[in-house]
Design goal:
By secondary structure, the protein is mainly β. Helix content is 0%, strand content 47%. It has one domain (6-89). Strands 1, 2, 3, 4 and 5 form a five-stranded antiparallel sheet that branches.
């Protein structure tokens, strides 16, 4: 019995979104009187959201069957229960 077509993965992801600061219309970026647009500052780690998890990969010829369990990370806390994701598709 071999496990050459079965694999696994660990993953972590993190990110944040923000709004652009109030600014004049930027439809003419060549206009030198238009001030530069700066994003609002990210003030703390609470501004970030992410996820951590692990998964199984089963190679089915040209397709890969994936099952992942992921926990949300927000406000510097990890969720108690995971979310499960199933997918099938080509590997990349």
């Amino acid at each position: 019995m071999t496990f050459r077509h079965i694999g696994g993965a660990f993953f972590a992801d993190m990110g944040a979104t923000f709004e652009l600061a109030d600014s004049p219309d930027l439809s003419d970026p060549v206009d030198p009187t238009t001030p530069p647009v700066e994003p609002n500052r990210l003030n703390s780690l609470d501004d970030f959201v992410g996820g951590v998890g692990f998964g199984t990969r089963v190679h089915l010829g040209i397709f890969i069957l994936r099952m992942d369990a992921a926990w949300r990370v927000a406000n510097q806390r990890i969720a108690n229960r995971p979310r499960y994701y199933w997918s099938i598709g080509a590997g990349f």
